[in-house]
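INPUT
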Amino acid sequence: EAQVTQNPRYLITVTGKKLTVTCSQNMNHEYMSWYRQDPGLGLRQIYYSMNVEVTDKGDVPEGYKVSRKEKRNFPLILESPSPNQTSLYFCASSLETGAYEQYFGPGTRLTVT
Amino acid sequence: GQQVMQIPQYQHVQEGEDFTTYCNSSTTLSNIQWYKQRPGGHPVFLIQLVKSGEVKKQKRLTFQFGEAKKNSSLHITATQTTDVGTYFCASSGAGSYQLTFGKGTKLSVIP
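OUTPUT
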């Protein structure tokens, strides 16, 4: 089954404790991205990747890191989480660029206290 | 990324009434995508429009792309409770790898 998986689905952590949210897709997609969703603000792109070892900043990259060492995986790293990073995070992938249909993962609800 | 403004933010309708959400941009859009997110779920792709003046239909849903490619609309005829959710438009600029989403329209359907 074609899908995008994210782990963990829920995470409660404390300020400053490094964490990684994993994202994996099995569709051989080149383009992957991370979004955060906050009430009233919609979906905002954090980072995106056009292919292996090629990443670029989205609209809200501060406080986040990403890497794309393999085509299928695109982890999101929070080196020192802060309460303003409490949000619902979605990973997405598409065939090539953002101009193609995005397939979203189930989401990761992160709470930073 | 380029800005896409979506209105209204919320819409409450009686079951059977029609619903429309609008997406507007001050710049020409190369394409427009529409997504639906059910409560507690993730966004799911509905459709993509790329041509000026394009109209596409999916059962009770009608999607339009403006002649100037600066606006788009999603119209649902005779809403049902299964239509509940938030509808997002999204677009990427010409030559851009970035996809920008509107803030969404949350649809509630009163049975």
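end of record. The radius of gyration of chain B is 13 Å.
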